[in-house]
Amino acid sequence: MEWTEEGIVLSARPHGDTSLILQALTAGQGRHAGLVRGGQSVKKRAMFEPGNRLLLTWRARIADHLGAYEAEPVATVSSRYYDDPDRLAALAAAAAVAEKALPEREAHPGAYQGLLAFIDALDHDFWPALYVRWEMGVLAELGFGLDLSCCAATGSNDQLAYVSPRTGRAVSLSAGEPYRDRLLTLPGFLTGTGEVTPRAILDGLALTEHFLNRSVFHLKDEETPGARKRMVDRLTRLAA
Amino acid sequence: MSGEIETLTKLLARLPGLGPRSARRAVLFLLKRREQLMLPLAEAMHAAAKAMKACRECGNYATEDPCPICTDARRDKTVMCVVEEVGDVWAFERSGAYRGLYHVLGGTLSALDGRGPEDLTLDKLVERCRPKVGDEGSVTEVILALDATVDGQTTAHYVSDRLQPLGIKVTRLAQGVPVGGELDYLDDGTLTTALKSRREV
Fold first, then answer.
1. How far is A50 from chain B (nearest CA, A)?
2. What are the boundaries of each domain within chain B?
């Protein structure tokens, strides 16, 4: 068994004294693990930081085996943001969410392309909005997409302001008003009707966190990754 | 193989750098040098296991608590170097380039290992850095000597945020071209950070 594809590093765990187990996200193979022999060496270790892009060749005798990776660097991304706590936190959060949410060895090209676009956008100021959109994309890829096209109660697409925490469908301002305490806020930038403000980003993150927890993490008996919580804490402090 | 040898082999095989085969070779080597090496080694290990403890101040291993570094009056008590593990303290001490205090965090924030701030000795660090009455011997600078990895730098930013209310200067180690490093062989990330951290000559 052998394939070669470009992938994004999600994590690398030391294995023995010299090797490591790499988790990478690829378009065609999905989230895929493999052993990197000598991956802990001084020369190679920097390659396997979350967010870096690698050209990966995976080989195994039998498809079910862990297999071994050979890796060539394509783009070293993570070290660019070591001095930028917000972007570094976002990169770590995205890698942690991808690793926890996406099933192993199941292709989700949308999640891969979305993560690639988010990483490319990290240099720009609109990265927080793209992060929220990427998490929505992950939910959609996993079959738990939110329906923000029209109000679940009235069918209109005017003034969509809330999302039902149960169904994931949008609710208009007037229809949702009596139940606003029980509904999630829908930030306008997700429907193209509002600006991207720090408050709107936090609303967007709360929205995706609810559905990631409900539909993905809780089913796996897991919690929201700590890296994502720390990113939200950081953005909350900045918004205050 | 007798039970004692098997137990010893299994225990040695759990050490870093040793597998079952190399552990067997080590056991054979020790057995052949029972008086010169095996018994002194066993006694030294027993003595170290009984005497060594983690310093309640910095987390370094020593026979005294607080450790000799924390109690050394000649050290600069206004500078504190935050490191991940005790091995990092030993590395700094080997270099002889640093004469301040240390604080061992006990790891880094790690999404992979599920290690959060509550698993590190952050509260103790903040307590140690809090200005003393009359500013006598108060810490004025904290050096974050953490790994140049996503986890290491995420932790560095987190520690820096925790120390911010205390108004202490927080610095971190430089990143870039290693001593003896040839540019041609450096990875993109190291070159990028080296460029960012360039300074006038």
1. 7
2. 7-38, 61-172
